[in-house]
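User: Before I run my own analysis I want an independent prediction to cross-check against. Here's the chain; please return only the structure tokens and, at the end, one sentence I can use as a sanity check.
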Amino acid sequence: MTLIGLFGMIPHLVGLPALTVSAGLPGHDLAVPLLLSAPRIDGQLGEAEWRGAVSAFGFRALGAGRVGDPQPFVLLGRDGEAFTLAARLPLPPGAKPKAIAGRDGPLWDGDSVELFLDPHPGDKVYYQFIVNAAGTVWDSRGQDNSFDTVWQAGAHVGDGFWSAEMRIPFASLNVAPPGEGDVWGVNVGWDRQTPSPAIMTWAPVVSGFHEPDHFRRVAFLAGACPFAVRDWRSDPRAGTLTMEGTCSAPTGRTARAAMKLCQVTGGQKAPVASASAEAAGVEAP
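Assistant: Structure tokens:
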């Protein structure tokens, strides 16, 4: 596997309107490959164990539609038995996140990460999983929190960030592991209370997280190329959006990263900017 630097990819925009970022192909928004091995779920994001994951990026303020700043760093992955998530959430230097105690409590009133999984888009059966900065969890089927199942979560608080990991066995959702090319509905939400309240969403939900028809479409493709967007900076005065990270491709092949941004008006997307990067890779250690 060859690692390719993306950066910086800087599309020039007029202002920074409500934007959506395309990372997938027709029929889905994101392709998730198989991880090389199941990560250890302890809340600390080991680079090697998440190397085969892909970034969920372009989080927007719920309801407002504007690109959030700062952005969370979120990775999605899966092994043969489970769907996995890793997230690193920024904090001001020296700040400690707010965490609500008690399983299945109102964890969104503190600093937390939410994952929504819809194995069969259109059937209205979806699942919600939350972990907060203390490692406390919530699970529900739709908005029915009497649902409890077996899954793993962990959290860690560092200097200037807190991080979380989740592992949701497919069996805990009463579904078989997805087949090649299967597409699920997925969303990730960031409930931020520190330093100030904000709700960020990956999918273009409008009034709340419980809108499965608006979840992102995520395809399970074993041969998809992993990539990680590690830094995202916007400058409204200059009209620029800068992204940095890495992607990987089979050794000996030319790798190219491309990004397209669209303005969303009345549910319709109109392209406003694009950028691409191409580079020779090096063998991953």
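Sanity check: The chain is about 0% helix and 45% strand.
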